[in-house]
Amino acid sequence: MKESADAPDALTIGRRIRHVRQEAGRTLGDVAEAVGMSTSALSLIENGKREPRLSVVSALAGELNTPLPKLLSTAPPSRRAALEIRLERAQRLPSYESMGLPRVKVSPRLPTEALEALVGMHEAMASARADSAATPEHARRANAQLRERMRAADNYFGDIEEEAGELLKAIHHPGGPISRAAVDRIAGHLGYKLVHTSDLPGSTRTVTDLHNHRIYLPQPEAGQHDSRSLALHAVGHLILGHQPPPDYAEFLSQRVEINYFAAALLMPEGETVDFLRRAKAEKDIAIEDLRDAYAVSYETAAHRFTNLATRHLGLPVHFMRISQDGVVYKAYENDGVRFPTDPMGAIEGQRVCRSWTARRVFEQPDLSQAYQAYTDTRSGTYWCTAVIDRTKDGLFAVNVGVPYQHVKWMRGRETTERAVSRCPDPSCCNQPPSGLAERWSGQAWPSARVHSHLLAAMPPGVFPGVDDTEVYRFLERHATTASK
Ligand SMILES: [Zn+2]
């Protein structure tokens, strides 16, 4: 990645130098001599194969009677040059090299038509590759790698905390929950305007117009929680310098980062840690309190707790979101709890043990109450607290847990609920009880409801699942009002 990210700069500078030199009607040899370098060295620079030192670019600018910034600009000097740069870049990609095909020499003799065709084919190939990279297997592998990264960092990302902290300082946030108005100020600080609209493309959650500096958000719906998070996600992409994701893994990791970023603004590190430390001193840590203090969803509060618990409170934790049938949608742990995994190490789509708190919460008489229980598992005893999240896609359980030796800090530890989980031993809950099995084995033919989101290939495109035409039409529609 690094290699190709640096290369275009040298390439663009080289093309600009050549452009200006040719415009001035000067030859390679004559200019090289005038600035005291060999013709071949200047040729390497013009071809982007050597990164010129600033003193060299400056000497060339003087010799060519052109302002230095003109040579250092990141924009290609002409449409032809832009095509040349795109072809050079495409030919330098490892994926092209691995095909064993020759590199086409990008010279002035290459007809523009041919150049255009080659660039078009390279880019079509790249997007076809991106499609195949988003198969469910790739998606699951990408998920597993991402979880490894989060685990290694104890789910704490200091650089994102810092960015969030600086933004809050910049808008003079007095502390406490951030309001809608504060989110407006954050966007304004970046030169962006938040615009609510009722005609957002169906395949998007928000759309950012990078040209007119507007972030389009859906109209807040009654009963749904606020659009602060959505706006902050969009701002996160800008602040964290995200580029269009080259593959699904990067897409996922950007999603994790913007989620983190939004949570770090909604629940600022310093004061949230103080809040949790006070609760810990009173042996009364509760996710509900965090949720209520910062006016966020239970899931956001639970997730934020996992960011800060290990780093600042010394508590290892686990977190999961599962559907009513026990299927994992999100999970994180650094406390040794063993999630069920597929052969590739992915957790999403696996079913957790029936004895786990996250599943038993669905059996409680009052689904509006948090449910706490101890579970003896093969990797130790854990205490968990779970709540039900009602969504239009059904019921989900959001579960936070800690190992037994850390339960003394948590509210709800006095529960007498207890369960034993022997999974992955199939006799724990994967196999039907023997009496039932004897009676029904061979006599049942269920038709499976497929989890399409887990099994289907990810929709193609740079932004998986997003309909570009729809998005461009949307921006076109709104751009006229934006420029007024
Ligand atoms: Zn089990």
Quick structural gist:
This protein is α+β, with helices and mostly antiparallel strands and 484 residues long. The protein is 48% helix and 12% strand. The protein is built from 21 helices and nine strands.
Explain what you see.
Belongs to the short-chain fatty acyl-CoA assimilation regulator (ScfR) family. InterPro entries: Cro/C1-type_HTH, IrrE_HExxH, Lambda_DNA-bd_dom_sf, Rad_response_metalloprotease. The chain has 484 residues and is α+β, with helices and mostly antiparallel strands. It is 48% helix and 12% strand. The protein is built from 21 helices and nine strands. The strands form two sheets. The chain has a six-stranded mixed beta sheet. Strands 1-3-2 form a three-stranded mixed beta sheet, with helices on both faces. A hairpin with a 4-residue loop joins strand 2 (207-209) and strand 3. Helix 15 (287-294) crosses helix 16 (298-313). It is elongated, with a radius of gyration of 28 Å. 28% of the residues are buried. Bound molecules: zinc ion (ZN). Zinc ion (ZN) binds at residues 353-355, 421, 423, 428-429.
